[in-house]
Amino acid sequence: MLELNFIRKNNKSIIEHLKVRNKDFRDLILKVLDFDEQRRSAQFKLDNELSELNQLSKEIGEMFKSGQQQAAIKLKEQTILLKDSTKELKQHLVDLENSINEILYQIPNVPNKQVPLEIRSRTMLLLIVMVIYQHFPLMQFLTGKLPKNTI
User: Fold this and answer.
1) What is the pLDDT confidence band of residue 40, given thresholds at 50, 70 and 90?
2) Which of 60, 81, 91, 96 could form an S-S bond across to 39 if both were Cys, CB 3.0 to 4.6 Å?
3) Residue 28 is part of which domain span?
4) Do 21 and 10 sit in the same domain of this protein?
5) Residue whose C-alpha is closest to residue 75's, from 64, 86, 65, 84
6) What is the CATH number of the domain that holds 39?
7) What local confidence, expressed as pLDDT, does residue 118 receive?
8) Taking the CB of residue 22, how many other CB atoms lie within 10 A of it?
9) What percent of the chain has pLDDT over 90?
10) Of 145 and 49, which is predicted with more confidence?
11) Are both 108 and 130 inside the same structural domain?
């Protein structure tokens, strides 16, 4: 399975090298990059909200110590909203990570970069020709070009 950092840094070359696999993986790679961007954005938002929640909790403790209970209660209501929001964000992150992993399982490893694309294509063509050669009588039968003595 390809790593997300590797895909993020080398997405164009990955798309190009995976063409050898006779399937277009461009959409999957772009989709995983999109989900990754969403995940990173959600993680940033979650980190900010958790930081704000910690700051508010400190302020609430100080207000209760100083006798400002009404103000502390108002801040406590804000923390309840933040806790609900962070809970939703955490679930959203889990969903995004699961989606990313499902897509990553569908993307094969990239063929070795040392082998030029042309050589890999020629090798694939050679393999196809070898398979056809082994099944030459079958190919003659399917195309209707049977030798004269077989009818």
Assistant:
1) very high
2) 96
3) 4-113
4) yes
5) 64
6) 1.10.287.40
7) 56
8) 8
9) 46
10) 49
11) no
